[in-house]
Amino acid sequence: MRTEISARKVKGEFLHQVEELSGQSVWACYQCGCCSSGCPIAEEMDLLPNQVIRYVQLGMEEELLASKTIWLCVSCFQCFARCPRGIDISKIMDALRQMAMAGGVDRFGPGEIPSAELARAPQQALVTVVRKLGA
Amino acid sequence: MKRIGVFVCGCGINIAKTVDVKKVVEEIGHYPGVVYATDYQYMCSDPGQKMIQEAIEREHLDGIIVAACSPTLHEFTFRRASEAVGLNPYQCEIANIREQCSWVHQDKEIATAKAIKITKSIIEKERLNDSLSPISVFMTRRALVIGGGIAGIQAALDIADSGYEVILVEKEPSIGGHMAQLSETFPTLDCSQCILTPKMVEISHHPKIKLLAYSEVVNVGGYVGNFNVKILKKPRYVKEDLCNNCGECFKVCPVVVPNEFERGLGSRYAIYIPFPQAVPSICTIDADACLGLFPLACNKCKEVCEPNAVDYDMKPEIIEETVGAIVVATGYDLLPSEELKEYGNGRNPDIIDGLHFERLLSASGPTQGVIRRPSDGKVPKEVVFVQCAGSRDPEKHLPYCSKFCCMYTAKHALLYKHRVPDGQPYIFYIDVRTAGKGYEEFYHRVSEQEGVVYLRGKVSKIFQDGDGLMVWGVDTLTGKKVEITADMVVLATGAVPAEGSKKLFANLKLACDENGFLSEAHPKLRPVESLTPGFFLAGAAQGPRDIPETVAQAGGAASKVIGMFSQEMLLHDPIVAVVDENLCSGCKICISACPYDAREFDEEKNIVRVNELLCEGCGACVAACPSGATQQQNITDDQIREMVKVVLGE
Amino acid sequence: MFEPKIVCFLCKWCTYAGADLAGTSRLEYAPNGVNIRIMCSSRVDPEHILWAFDRGADGVFVGGCHPGDCHYQDGNYKTLRRIELFQRVLKQFGLENGRLRLEWVSAAEGRKFAQLMDEFTEQIRALGPIKLGSRKGGQDGGSTKKEETS
Amino acid sequence: MKLPYYPGCTLKDRTSQLETTALACAEKLDVQLEEMPNWTCCGGVYPVSETKIVNLVAPFRILKEVQEAGDDKLVTICDFCYNVLKRTNLIIREDSVKRTRLNLFLSDDDRRWAASGRRVGEGQEYDGGVKVLHYLEMLRDELGFEAVAAAVSKPLEDLKIAPYYGCNLLRPPLEMDLDDPEDPRIMEDFLGSMGAQVVEFPYRIECCGSFLSLSSPQIARRLCHTILESARKNGADAIMLSCPMCFYNLEQKQSEFARHFPGFRPMPVFFFSQLLALALGLDPASLGFERNFADPVPLLKEKHLV
Ligand SMILES: Cc1cc2nc3c(=O)[nH]c(=O)nc-3n(C[C@H](O)[C@H](O)[C@H](O)COP(=O)(O)OP(=O)(O)OC[C@H]3O[C@@H](n4cnc5c(N)ncnc54)[C@H](O)[C@@H]3O)c2cc1C
Ligand SMILES: Cc1cc2nc3c(=O)[nH]c(=O)nc-3n(C[C@H](O)[C@H](O)[C@H](O)COP(=O)(O)OP(=O)(O)OC[C@H]3O[C@@H](n4cnc5c(N)ncnc54)[C@H](O)[C@@H]3O)c2cc1C
Ligand code: SF4
Ligand code: SF4
Ligand code: SF4
Ligand code: SF4
Ligand code: SF4
Ligand code: SF4
Ligand code: SF4
Ligand code: SF4
């Protein structure tokens, strides 16, 4: 199926919301791909970080909110540190997670942490994973 | 009181249709000072002009107003006509009743009233006009060219070939610039040295060119037509006229240091010629490397120098020259690799930049054109080229596109493939920019026939991994993060203004853009002129550009200089600012208002003076002057006040 | 109907040329403004504006080149600063800021010039003639582009 | 030198060895780190969402208390706390809207506290004036690595250590502004001041996988394995780091590595403070090595450091 592109999508509410939540200017991205080449997780992602930005630019909301990528980004800021346009991609990932969760996806709860881990993982890891991936 | 004549044009019906021309004549005819008023159908036609001229003579007019079309169109026409019959051209003014009245209004009554107001306001202006003549300036018909790259060389030759003298100043021991370092040049792959060397030699032989290599411009005073230039000639410690480039001294010099010309990949002695084809072809002693000039520690070169050219006592010399025009052609440098921390921080010998690679490719280079990687001399079999290294990165490095790196990278990959047929080149790119004649075709050749693999994506990181270099990239077209283990990496590092140019441009008071490249007077219509009169721009000093564009621009700059020199006198519009010495309080407020440094403070009299050759007549100083001491010729405050009055119907 | 009197100071390189273009394009606009050609908008001395108001102008228009396009490097920036400062002075005289307007019009913007003339005329018409009473503490009338951007 | 100190929750529990050694070293170096009273959790991650300002309240309150106590610096040890506090501080300093909102938020909060009889805030605006320092930064900028070097009694001479930075200490670079994000020196210089041999390896600034060790453990494992192997390949005896999360992923989780990566050999991992304690001559038995999976003691014995 062809993907529809229209003013409704590229100037749509979705893009607006992502920009609002993340504080990032999505159209600053010129798709150099540097974020993806340095991302430590990229090989596990179904959409590369630069593709995430591109999908946002084109208003491809459904595809994005269904992607694995947004749950894999660990906010290591490597992409941000090297992005020639100064885009904090982790903020965009966070915004997308937030939107996905608002849409009812509850990706990760404390219940999903194996008890062995619960017993020894640092508090900080527990707090972080829940705040990043849980509602 | 001045005797003023007014000539109202109907422009066929262009004006007459909406403006009652007769009524204008009638009203104006009674206006104080107007001794003659008439109308005519086509004022700019021959009969029209003749009519004006006759009236000027017959009525002994001291000033005329032509109420017609915009002054942009025919001011020149009518001023010339006035001048022909002895009326000072600055006593002829235009009232714009067509573009700004008859063509934009419909109501005849209103338009006529407005035309009358416009005409009266111009009469008021004219009443107070002085007779002026263009300021003519004596001009020195000699040019200074700063920078001896291909831009400076071309400009110097073009000017000199037209018969004017040229002084060419180059800071390095030899002219040639970066083009001398290149191997073969895109898109035709002609040998850079082969096309450049004859021009360099021509410079050295040209009777009209005085070459001052190993020199720098330290100060420029004066103004267009008459610049006083101070040039520092650095001591070579070798007499230019005696050294015959026999090379005996190299054989005995005990000091070996990296050769800058080879970008450190080759070496030279403390007494050296940077490259065999250098012009002037004479030695230079690198005082920092030499075992000791003060006190003398070695003396070996002097001992063997047959013509006795070595002169350890040579001193820096200041040379003063007067020139009429200056071409600035100081070129570019590459962004130092140390700035590219994620790409090896300039510390890995096998991560090199484009100019290093040119030297490796060059038959006269340190490896005689055999591609060997610097660390161990191995012929690299997998080579990664990284485009936009530092360019197009407003966050961390250079915001702009360096323009020639897409093409030189394509060239590099191709030449590499020719030298190492079983090697594999890869090029990481964001976009491939090939806007030039034959460039796209060249790119196709490289990507299609030469087996160069283009990968679309920006490299994130390069590091030593065991024996190889790990390059982390992405291919956004497949959507895959990729890595390549390379034997050598070539960074297409971005171009920056030549080292030291910031200081030089500040010294010359030349405007630069935010990246430090020279600003042109107008990006489209005056691309080879600086905003400062008398300065012309050539080559990469204005922004990264390749050789064809550089040569074209250098020719353009040269022809501007020649055009200026071919005039009898430099003429300057006389509507400059003037200062009434009695009113000026010496507060200096105007000095900072002037964009051209045309105002200088007279310490003795405690007043400000205008250098009318520098003044461009913007009037900013007049508005700034709190005491009314400074006025602009023929647009004085009095004139404006009177015009305002009339406009408002008094 | 109140017909405002407007004095326009136009820089030779941009706005005056823009006004010429409006003419060559035969764009009709309000006739209330009369143009005075100067070399650069930076030639405008606040005093000139005062004269105009003093002599009965209801509005003053200053036109210059767009920022970055000034024929004299940065004259229009000087103008911008001066006019901004001067707006405050005008206020003290009891004149509404809307009576003085600074605009950038390029040589290609004939249409913009025509529109501005109409717009400015209407703006002044709305403000009405300068009342003596308004010379002290008169309220702010009309907004200028400048105000919006600053 | 006396400085307020913010421990954060992890240091009080799962990685208390980091705190105890850091505090012991501070004492040796004549730096009095005074744990701030009433500290709360900083939130663990800097809330990157622009809209959820409420998540900034916790770190904001911490910083405000520092200022109210009359201090202008705050030392942290955990990289995550450092990241959260430093970035929060910056946003307070630079974003006046957020600053005002947070201050308003806390003025309500003060009233609540007053009602509970615990403590009344002065109601004074917090303006971001506190300088947030990482312990390493404190050593570098406040004390100076020369002073550290001078205090070293047992130089770590033969120890080949690969310093590992991870993500939160250096990035985002403009906000953290601790060191060059691509070529940091602070850990290297720190190691140098203790006489250790620094092993630079390409993965020192690559992420360890962070919290993915809980949600997608196989990914974090792969990343950590690569990091450890790279350090080993470059000749390191051990890794030094500063973050409890990295420690968990790179050290504690080594227990599972042999199962997934045949032939894997454990590699000792130190907190920077443990190495400092060694160099300053503190009792090796008190440094918490028993908590490590990869026992560093044999290595230290071999190098005659215990
Ligand atoms: C790796 C690489 C490969 C390239 N390959 C090609 C190619 O194949 N084809 C092509 O068309 N273009 C190529 N180019 C571009 C080409 O180098 C430039 O177009 C050209 O050199 C510009 O000439 P220029 O005279 O303006 O500057 P430069 O060559 O930089 O010359 C400037 C001169 O001014 C001198 N100078 C600087 N400052 C001062 C001062 N203050 N006082 C006195 N003298 C001063 C310098 O010493 C130098 O001699 C390549 C560029 C690079 C980096
Ligand atoms: C859509 C478009 C947009 C553009 N936008 C820009 C832009 O924004 N900025 C920019 O810098 N450039 C732009 N350009 C490019 C710009 O148009 C050209 O650079 C410029 O017009 C070239 O000028 P020229 O005088 O060489 O050629 P032309 O403009 O083509 O002029 C050639 C003249 O020669 C005449 N002529 C042709 N043959 C003969 C003959 N046998 N005898 C006598 N006369 C002849 C023609 O009638 C014509 O008047 C644009 C081009 C296009 C197509
Ligand atoms: S690095 Fe930045 S500009 Fe490049 S693709 Fe990623 S987000 Fe876009
Ligand atoms: S912040 Fe997320 S997207 Fe960016 S490099 Fe780290 S994991 Fe990848
Ligand atoms: S002078 Fe101007 S207005 Fe008069 S006929 Fe000529 S073009 Fe028309
Ligand atoms: S300096 Fe003397 S020895 Fe050396 S090349 Fe020149 S002439 Fe020969
Ligand atoms: S005097 Fe200097 S330049 Fe001459 S041979 Fe000795 S070291 Fe070389
Ligand atoms: S010319 Fe090509 S390689 Fe160079 S900066 Fe521009 S796009 Fe990048
Ligand atoms: S008119 Fe303009 S250029 Fe001339 S002196 Fe005054 S400010 Fe300078
Ligand atoms: S501003 Fe006027 S009074 Fe002051 S120095 Fe300049 S000319 Fe003289």
Brief characterization of the structure:
The complex is a heterotetramer of chains A (135), B (650), C (150) and D (306). Chain C has 150 residues and is α/β, with parallel strands linked by helices.
What does this structure look like?
The complex is a heterotetramer of chains A (135), B (650), C (150) and D (306). Chain B is of the alpha/beta class and 650 residues long. Chain B is built from 17 helices and 34 strands. In chain B, helix 1 packs parallel to helix 5. The radius of gyration of chain B is 32 Å and the shape is elongated. The model of chain B has no long low-confidence stretch (mean pLDDT 95). With 150 residues, chain C is α/β, with parallel strands linked by helices. Chain C has one domain: 3-Layer(aba) Sandwich (Rossmann fold), CATH 3.40.50. Helix content of chain C is 40%, strand content 15%. Chain C has five helices and four strands. In chain C, strands 2-1-3-4 form a four-stranded parallel β-sheet, sandwiched between helices. In chain C, helix 1 links the parallel strand 1 and strand 2. The C terminus of chain C is likely disordered. Chain D has two domains: 132 residues, Glutathione S-transferase Yfyf (Class Pi), Chain A, domain 2 (Up-down Bundle); 150 residues, Rossmann fold. The two termini of chain D are 30 Å apart. Chain D has 14 helices and eight strands. The mean pLDDT of chain D is 91. Chains A and B meet through helix 3 of A and strand 25 and strand 26 of B. Bound molecules: flavin-adenine dinucleotide (FAD) (2 copies) and iron/sulfur cluster (8 copies). The site of one iron/sulfur cluster (SF4) has 14 residues of chain B, from helix 8.
Count of distinct strands of chain A? 0
In one word, what is the shape of chain A?
globular
Q: Give the SSE order of chain D as H and E letters.
A: EHEHEHHEHHEHHEHHEHHEHH
> Which topology of chain A does CATH recognise?
Fumarate Reductase Iron-sulfur Protein, Chain B, domain 2
The strands making up the biggest β-sheet of chain D line up spatially as 2-1-3-4
The most extensive interface between chains reads:
A-D, 39 and 46 residues
| Amino-to-carboxy terminus distance of chain D | 30 Å
**Percent of residues of chain A in beta strands?**
under 5%
Number of strands of chain D: 8
Overall average pLDDT of chain D: 91
> How many domains make up the 3D coordinates of chain A?
1
Q: Hetero groups bound? A: flavin-adenine dinucleotide, iron/sulfur cluster
Major sheet description of chain D: 4 strands, parallel
Derived from helix and strand composition plus strand pairing, the structural class of chain A reads: mainly alpha
Q: Helix count of chain D?
A: 14
